[in-house]
Amino acid sequence: MRPPSGRFIPASSGVEQNADGLVILYHQQSFAMYEGRLLHDPDVARYLGDVEFALMLGHLDGKPCQLVRLSQPADLPGVSWHGLRGLIGQIDDVTFRVLGLAQQLDAWHDTHRFCGRCGQGMRARVDERAMECEACSLRQYPKLSPCIIVLISRGDEILLARSPHFRAGFFSTLAGFIEPGESVEECLHREVKEEVNLEVDQLEYLGSQNWPFPNSLMLGFHARYVSGDIIPQPGEIEEAHWWPVSQLPGIPPRGTISRWLIDCHLARLEGQPLPPIPA
Ligand SMILES: [Zn+2]
Fold first, then answer.
1. What pLDDT sits at residue 15?
2. Between the N and C ends of the chain, which has fewer C-beta atoms within 10 Å?
3. What are the binding positions for Zn(2+) in this chain (predicted)?
4. DSSP 5
5. What distance in angstroms lies between residue 160's CA and the mean position of ligand 1's atoms?
6. What is residue 1's predicted lDDT score, i.e. its pLDDT?
7. Within the chain, which residue ranges are assigned CATH 3.90.79.20?
8. Entry pTM
9. Domain with CATH 3.90.79.10 in the chain
10. Residue-level pLDDT at 250
11. CATH number belonging to domain 8-110
12. Rounded to an integer, what distance in angstroms lies between the CA atom of residue 240 and that of residue 249?
């Protein structure tokens, strides 16, 4: 797959007046790939179907980049459709970031067609990224859901757990949503206690990743084990174990912050510099 060369600057406004640039074509949670590309010239959209709506995403290498949602796209040779999860690890970080933003904004636009206060129609503002009610002027901005994600270490071992919906043999770091009224640190201690019954300390913030499933902002930490025996939380955690770093199970692919937290710990154990954080 051809990678874009690279620099993406998100837009702060909602609608692009200039039709030039690049478009991302989206329909029913999937992105169009044509001739090996996920970013297209605007002309391609015309062949594929009617535009339901378009939203400005930002600038990729100086070119405006828009999300275009199509209704009932034509079934043309050479066009395939791909969900974002299936593209993890298959596409470069910059493209993943742009598609992730596109997916989040599509969901936001789709769920804010009507005002939550008075029920009238809403429309995208031109001067900022907001939906505004035509009747009562309520504005709604895209929402993010902050989450903690934490790698817990105990000497040369790390704690990895699996949810009931993970594929067989696959384990990951612990994660959870920050609740109203709660600090990031309180959330981390609560989630670790709830999910595996452990106490941790020495919380170290390492970095963040926007995670568009559907709109999470993942705040990545490393924490050290203090006390407790693992008791998986019923319904949430199917299994959790301490894994020697030389014998890890199936872990998340590169490009995810959970994998990056693991890779950072491995790099430190080997005295290596930390790998770059995924976009
Ligand atoms: Zn209203």
1. 61
2. N
3. 115, 118, 133, 136
4. -
5. 46
6. 44
7. 8-110
8. 0.85
9. 145-269
10. 96
11. 3.90.79.20
12. 11
The CA distance from 149 to 91, in Å, is 23
Q: Separation of 114 CA from ligand 1 center, angstroms? A: 8
Q: Tell me which residues of the chain have a pLDDT lower than 70.
A: 1-5, 13-19
pLDDT score of 247: 96
Q: What is the pLDDT of residue 115?
A: 98
Omega cis (within 30) before 214: yes
Whole-Å CA distances, 24 to 20, 36, 37, 247, 268: 13, 13, 10, 40, 38
What whole-number distance in Å separates Cα of residue 171 and Cα of residue 241? Answer: 9
Tokens representing residue 27 in the block: 């329909």
Q: Report the separation in Å between the CA atom of 123 and the middle of ligand 1, taken as the mean of its atom positions.
A: 11
83 phi, psi to nearest 5 deg:
-75, 150
CATH no. of 145-269: 3.90.79.10
Phi, psi of 158 (to 5 degrees): -125, 155
* pLDDT for residue 143: 92
Q: Residue 154 Cα, ligand 1 centroid: separation in angstroms?
A: 53
Give pLDDT, residue 11.
Answer: 81
Residue 209 tokens, joined:
């990743």
Nearest to 215 by CA among 111, 137, 127, 89: 111
- C-alpha distances (whole Å) from 116 to each of 119, 203, 215 are 6, 39, 19
Beta strand pairing status for 50-60 and 63-71? antiparallel
CA distances from 234 to 148, 167, 175, 196, 250 (A): 20, 18, 15, 10, 22
